[in-house]
Amino acid sequence: MSDYRIRGTAADGQIRFLAATTCGIVEEARSRHNTSPVMTAALGRLMTAGLLMSADMKGEKDLLTLQIRGDGPGQGLIVAADSRGHVKGYPIEPHVLIGPNDKGKLDVSGALGHGTLSVVRDSGYAEPYSSQIELISGEIAEDITYYYATSEQTPSSVALGVLMNKNNTVAQAGGYLIQLLPGTDDSVIDMLEERLKGIDSVTTLLQSGRSPEDIIEEILEGLFPQFAEEKQDVSFFCDCSREKVGKVLISLGKKELMDMVNDKKPVEVHCHFCNSNYIFSIHEIEEIIKK
Known about the structure:
The strands form three sheets. Strands 1, 2, 8, 9, 10 and 11 form a six-stranded antiparallel β-sheet that branches. It contains ten helices and 14 strands. It has helices at 23-33, 37-53, 108-112, 141-151, 186-197, 202-207, 212-219, 242-251, 254-263, 282-290; strands spanning 4-10, 15-21, 63-70, 76-82, 86-91, 115-122, 129-134, 156-164, 170-180, 226-227, 232-233, 235-236, 267-271, 276-280. A hairpin with a 6-residue loop joins strand 6 and strand 7 (129-134).
């Protein structure tokens, strides 16, 4: 199953939903950053959240950035997603090794610790909108739910999951976001709450062969979900390039570039998001100075 996201409404427009499967994206992030299992799970959950939350953005330059900073050994995560279904992200400390939590699962909360979640929406034109909350669990799905309740006053149910194979590759990854719109009938709320009580975890559902559409139809059975459009492909994508890195070097100014030349050592620039390195020779730095 390729990675994609879906969206739509239910209960005659009283509920909106989004869902995604992201196994390939999370596996690519794991491979690029060589993350330990618990940090793969943490990063995969936040990247999936980024894809769900960015689905409403319309502009070509719109960008959603999610940043978690914590006092746990993992220290935090940074994820960026755009309107076209592209997402990238990295963990501050990728190699955390800690034991499972009291449920025998990967202890994402223990890896991140106490801290904050920051959400920044940037349209590329006006001043970016930024909001920050305290982490209430560090499990990420609960924290995104709390963000919507406090910062956007939107009752939401968020589920995010990453399932690992025994060889520490990614077996399944995905999630869903279900929200109540203003004026939702109490009967609809009661029905949704009842449906959510009995639903299995996202990874259990995906591992059993269910698609995002199947998951939504199971949760919203009796509430008549309507899928608004064709599914949208999503992917890990970093827009860094040698040309862009060269422009960054130009912005440093002639004096700093001359210092680099005088050191007589190639300059290496690292992209945290995709873990790529760009090496510029002394001759290339001299050419940048000439420009």
